[in-house]
Amino acid sequence: MKKAQIQLYTGDGKGKTTAAAGLAARALGHGWRVLFVQFMKNRKSGEIDFLTLCGGENFRVLRNWDGTFVLSRPNSEQAGMCRDLWKMSLEALKAESYDMVVFDEIAVAISFGLLDEREVLDYLRMKPLSLEVVLTGQGAGKKLIEAADLVTEMKKVKHYYDNGVRARKGIEY
User: Fold this and answer.
1) Stated pTM of the model
2) Are the beta carbons of 70 and 40 closer than 8 angstroms?
3) Average pLDDT, whole number, for the chain?
4) Over the stretch 97-112, which tens digit does the pLDDT of each residue have?
5) Which long-range contacts (CB under 8 A, 24 or more apart) does 150-153 make?
6) Is the separation of the CB atoms in 18 and 159 below 8 Å?
7) Is the confidence at residue 61, as pLDDT, over 60?
8) Please, what is the angle between helix 46-55 and helix 16-29, to 10°?
9) Domains in the chain, ordered, with CATH?
10) How far, in Å, CA of 6 to CA of 132, rounded?
11) Residues 154-173 pLDDT 10s
C-alpha cells in the first residue's frame, strides 16, 4: 500500500463532516476498517447510523460528549471529555488495525483548548504510514494546515441558518 495521507476539511461552510462521512463510506465499500471519532458531538446523526449499519464490524464510532455547547470558555469537564476521547482513540488505534481514522471536529477542540495541539501534531508525525487520517472542524490553525497533505476549506457564501432555519433531520444530522 502506498503512503496514506492526512486530509483536513475546515472553514465556516457546511459539509466538513459530510465530506468525512463520504470518505468513510467509500473506504468501507472497499473493505477498509474505519474508526470515526467525534469530538464535541453526541447527537444522533443519519450519517453515523448509516455507516454503522453498512460498515458492520469494519466501522467503529467513538464519542464522549455531554451534549452541551461551548459558547465562550470551555469548562474543565468538557476538556476532560475531549482528553479522554483522544486517549480512547489512540488506544483503539493501537489495539486494532484500522485503514482510516476520522477525527471529526478535532480542529474545533484544539482551537477551544480542549486538546493539546502538540499532542495531535506529534501523533500525525508518528502515525502508521498506512493509516489515512481525516481531520475536520472550523478554525484549523496554521500548524494543523501545514501537517495535512490535503486541505479543503468550506466557505460559507450564504446559509439558511442566518435566516433562522434550524438544523434539519436528514440534511444537517
Assistant:
1) 0.93
2) yes
3) 93
4) 999 999 999 999 999 9
5) 150/5, 150/6, 150/7, 150/8, 151/7, 151/8, 151/10, 152/7, 152/8, 152/9, 152/10, 152/11, 152/19, 153/10, 153/11, 153/13
6) no
7) yes
8) 10
9) 6-163 (3.40.50.300)
10) 6
11) 999 999 988 999 888 888 88
